[in-house]
């Protein structure tokens, strides 16, 4: 219980240590960042043993007075543990990749400081047990992300960061106004305590307005259609490890996780009319339109960015089905997409690192010169396209079966069709970038540096092996506790506060 704050304290401490220690030795930045994220990854794997429990930590020892929680709380349950795994596993491999990749940039010290602040913010959002501190950590993540997107300080990066900051600020304003109404209605900021109050209040116009504010604010953070305008510029412009974090982690934690936690565990889906329908519509629209927009792209990283919109649509669509099988499919696809899209963005970064271009029309035959990058990219592309035996196939299959189980046959067909479109644009990318004849740009290139290759290979192995999570033992230890948290709805309050 007393170790939960380490998820926030370790990256925050490392972020403040790096600028000071780097004045003595510049190399300390690489080592400090890598060791801290390695510890966080190991720690997030260790806490899986507590996945069936709900653990509460009262910051500063501020325990509830009577039944009223007045201090800051950190909560760890089955859903929290999955999100911590996603953040810290991807975060470690992005850090390892950065050691070589960021040598192209001028100041790694500032980069690692911002990167670790982003990790601290993401972990803070996940473990926060009260709405205001969730917002504080969300802003730490967002501000660090704005700076990291602009890290190349070229015109394209600065424009993308500015757009991201404006739209992200609008999303944050919606969320902050929602928090004010949240507090006015409940007189508490604790999520579990508020769930009890909302259940007693019942439906009212203020609660409906509050749900709209949160829906819009967190949908902007998740880059769901039609709130996605910042993502197609931000993801391609950012350094590759930051693109991997944005797509693999940030939109899931700041967007999907926050939506699911608040609407399922605090409001309760029965209290907000048509919640599931809204999730289904947003998910389906994002899924379909994102895939068609990806199909028309000639920029490798931009194609991956639109693909993220489509795949996050699958996740929200699955949660919108409102069934245990749908929740299982949504969570499993969340995990799969985190690994897959992080891998593919690191692949694209390796290509840009060697060729200095993202234009697929200028590339070709990259696999002949960069076999590790080419092979791992093919694994990621096949998995995210939903081809067996990769993890992406199983998560999409579960989502489609959940839609059929619910009786949504047309929507199940839409999900299958979207997966076919996904195959089309990833095979297009493979053909134009990695296969075919060598172009003038790719004739003299060579494989990416060793640490970049290690990160890509490790994520590719994870992508291949994720199917084991459906083996009964692993499913029971990791996925089922998270499904139980979502399915339990506002019973979350009892698990946190007790009876």
Structure commentary:
The chain is mainly α and 499 residues long. It has one domain. It is 74% helix and 2% strand. The protein contains 20 helices and two strands. The protein has a two-stranded antiparallel sheet. The longest helix has 32 residues, at 155-186. It is globular, with a radius of gyration of 21 Å. The mean pLDDT is 89.
Adjacency order of strands in the biggest sheet: 1-2
Largest sheet, described in full? Answer: 2 strands, antiparallel
Order of helices and strands: HHEEHHHHHHHHHHHHHHHHHH
**Backbone shape:** globular
* Residue fraction in strands: under 5%
> What helical percentage do the residues reach?
over 70%
Round the Cα radius of gyration to an integer and report it: 21 Å
- The count of strands amounts to 2
Distance between the termini: 20 Å
Number of domains: 1
Mean pLDDT: 89
Unreliable stretches:
none
Helix-strand category = mainly alpha
**Count of helical stretches:** 20
Oligomer: single chain
Give a brief rundown of this model:
The protein has 499 residues and is an all-alpha fold.
Features:
globular, 499 residues, 20 helices, two-stranded antiparallel sheet
List the helices and strands and how they pair.
Blueprint: H1 6-21, H2 28-46, E1 55-58, E2 73-76, H3 78-101, H4 108-127, H5 131-149, H6 155-186, H7 191-201, H8 205-222, H9 231-237, H10 240-267, H11 275-295, H12 300-320, H13 324-355, H14 366-369, H15 371-384, H16 391-406, H17 409-434, H18 450-465, H19 472-488, H20 492-497
Antiparallel strand pairs: 1-2
Helix pairs in contact: 1-2, 1-4, 2-3, 2-4, 3-4, 3-10, 3-13, 3-18, 3-19, 4-5, 4-10, 5-6, 5-10, 6-8, 6-9, 7-10, 8-10, 9-10, 9-12, 10-12, 10-13, 10-19, 11-12, 11-17, 12-13, 12-17, 13-15, 13-16, 13-18, 13-19, 15-17, 15-18, 16-17
